[in-house]
Amino acid sequence: MSTVFARLKEVASPRSGLGCMNLSHAYGSPVPEAEALRALDAAFDMGYRHFDTATLYGKTANERLVGKALAGKRDQVLLASKGGMAFDPELGRKVVDGRPETLRRQCEASLRRLGTDHLDLYYLHRLDRRVPIEESVGALGRLVEEGKIRGIGLSEVSAATLRRARAEHPVAAVQSEYSLWTRNPEIALLEACRETYTALVAFSPLGRGFLTGTVRDPARLEESDMRRHMPRFSAENYPRNLSLLEDFMAVASELDVTPGQLALAWLTAQGDDVIPIPGSRSVDHMRENLGAESLRLDTATITRLNAMMTPDQVAGARYSEAQQADIDTEEFG
Question: Where does the NADP-dependent oxidoreductase domain start and stop, copy by copy (predicted)?
């Protein structure tokens, strides 16, 4: 695995990281700052050492939040952020921009917001189809040479894009959605990561809350919650998806674990190079997720789970057409 993630062992970290996005972005109203800081402090105290944020999240507010929370703790954590996708206040929308000058400017701004002189991992948040991946990665490679970042990451890219990027510069990690009900990395990306000794950092490992069994009616989510606009959570598709949960919940009950813990245990069983970064707005859920660290599934249970929520059974695409336009990953036909 990448030397970047050897740092997790140095800081005696659990395997799972913490996705910080939920505190500021995408899942309804942002958590008030004082409450969010308490949650991040609690996460550190309970053992989290890998913290993941991005320029986009909360229109840069999430980076400032994480920077405040980790002040005085920087040498004890693996800190990751992302650039190449940011909110443009003049246009009033997010913009994907992978030009070298943009990546440098955004990375340096992230360092200031996070209160650090370097990032352990810096991702190209989305592939900019107008810019050859070699140019974007080359720019990130120069930031590595300058010591501003320790490792390069890519997010939501295909196996082909990873191979092109890797020819330009070593890639420490690819971040992609991966869970029992989203298995797109298994098409080609996971194999490509292993060819290049690249870690797969799995975001939304709990299926955006679906696999916890707590999202019973998406219509009750806040209007600003991004899931309300995702096909799998639509009024047409969600009841069909809920029916897939019954057998999964039964296995969790048999093992006397929560559904979320079972979902994380299934994911880590896919290989030591798969690193989940579940996000949560709840301290209790952060603690529950860490409880999956000690859960080991036997072969029979893994085989049983593998037969559930297969791509042909899941109703609806991962993203809407507008959201999918920025995604480079392989999709099931």
Answer: 17-307
* Sheet order of strands, 50-52 included: 18-19, 50-52, 78-83, 121-124, 152-155, 173-177, 199-203, 274-276
Enclosing domain of residue 39: 3-209+267-295
> In angstroms, rounded to a whole number, what is the distance separating the alpha carbons of residues 155 and 153?
7
Residue 119 in tokens: 């990032």
Q: Where are the beta strands (DSSP E) in the chain?
A: 18-19, 50-52, 78-83, 85-88, 93-96, 121-124, 152-155, 173-177, 199-203, 274-276
The verdict on residue 246 lying in a domain is no
User: Is residue 319 in a domain?
Assistant: no
Count of domains for the chain: 1
Contact 73, 100 (CB under 8 A): no
- For CA atoms 249, 246, 237, 178, the dihedral sign is positive
Dump pLDDT digits (tens) for 206-255: 999 999 999 999 999 999 999 999 999 999 999 999 999 999 999 999 99
Contacts of residue 227, defined as CB under 8 A and 6 or more positions apart, other chains included, come to 27, 208, 209, 215, 218, 221, 233
In 61-120, at which residue ranges do the beta strands (DSSP E only) sit?
A: 78-83, 85-88, 93-96
Cβ–Cβ < 8 Å for 326, 96: yes
Q: Is the pLDDT of residue 143 over 80?
A: yes
Q: What is the CATH number of the domain that holds 137?
A: 3.20.20.100
Angle at 25 between CA 24 and CA 29, to 5 degrees: 75
Per-residue pLDDT of 58-97, as tens digits, reads 999 999 999 999 999 999 999 999 999 999 999 999 999 9
155: β partners: 175
3-state SS class at 27 = strand
Give tens-digit pLDDT for 22-66: 999 999 999 999 999 999 999 999 999 999 999 999 999 999 999
Q: How much of the chain, in percent, has pLDDT values that exceed 70? A: 98
Both tokens of 130, joined, read: 């107008």
Please give the mean pLDDT across all residues of the chain.
96
Q: Is residue 178 part of a domain?
A: yes
Can you give the pTM of this predicted structure? Answer: 0.96
